[in-house]
Fold EAL domain-containing response regulator.
Amino acid sequence: MKHSINCLIVDDDPMYAIVASSILSTLTSGLLRTAPCGRAGLAALTRESRDTDLVFLDLNMPDLDGLAFMRAAHEVGYAGNIVISSGESPAVLRSAEAMGRMLGISILGVLTKPLTMEGVAEMLAKSEMTRGPSAKLGGLAGKDCELTPYYQPQYDLATLRIAGFESLIRLTSKGGRIHGPADLFSSVNGLEDLTAVSLEIAIKVVRDFRTWPVGRTRADVSINFDASVLERPHVIADLQQAVTDLSADPNTICIEVTEKSLPKDPSRLVEALTRLRMFGFKLSLDDYGMGASSFQLLRLCPFSEIKVDRSIIEACPHDRVTRKFLHAVAGLARDLELVSVAEGVENQEELSEVRAAGMDRVQGFLFSRPVPSQAVAELMSDPEAYPA
């Protein structure tokens, strides 16, 4: 079955445009447009940004290069995905990808030239997963949809047994259809909504966790919080009260903190995270190494865990600099007596790199996809769930 993804090809090489168009027309029935230069591509994107799901972007173009295109796309509010497709060196591609993500753009990945059918198909599949009928949801949970936590297990690399779970939120519509987090957060309006949703998710997760057979294994559960939410004066007290009301052990709950930039007044976040640790919660620094503030946060706040992003794990098998970075993070975690977690391991090659670096925990599709709460007990009791 073909995808129904609207694509824009931005490249000054006419032969590339012909090849890309031919491959995409085979794989998707959506609208397909080409732009012979960066400025034409930006004009098309600005004119029809809502009708563009995926941009295939060259970097080296004479009038407006790919880097300038990404910055301009961010400024006009493009909310779709971008695939960087270029013949530049791995170092340049890595930096361009990092820059796009720093801008907040959804970079699905990099395809080197010449294109292959398999590579394009993979990017279309990723794009399909990030799409969602946000405009059709009609609002947040409690209206047309319900917040539904799913759980991806984390495995201890020494024993290959489940050591914890990361909670990942989904939306379940009245008809039973499952939507991803993009649908939820695209309909969140401002910090007030984000705070309310984050606390509701936390309560649902703690309730689920108390029904699982984790006492023997001492597995923990991670809940994601944006730092801007944790800085709000009442949130820490609300979290503490929820755990107390549900008779949960805070030592089994890990708060994953995501922070794209250090706040103007870091003392608020430091105070909030210190209070959480004093109460007994674990703290994880999510996406370590992906933002400029990661080291500052690690230095200032009492974290118990460092988590490495999927994009770093994916790059390790073929990029020496990234591989060295992973080893350095694992070593830093050992020196600071922190748990290190590798996120998004999808194949044996990536698992080998994670093992070689000496990471403590691993999660990813190689081991298990996220599962609903009712499937957790079965997952924990199934000896076949742990790959060698």
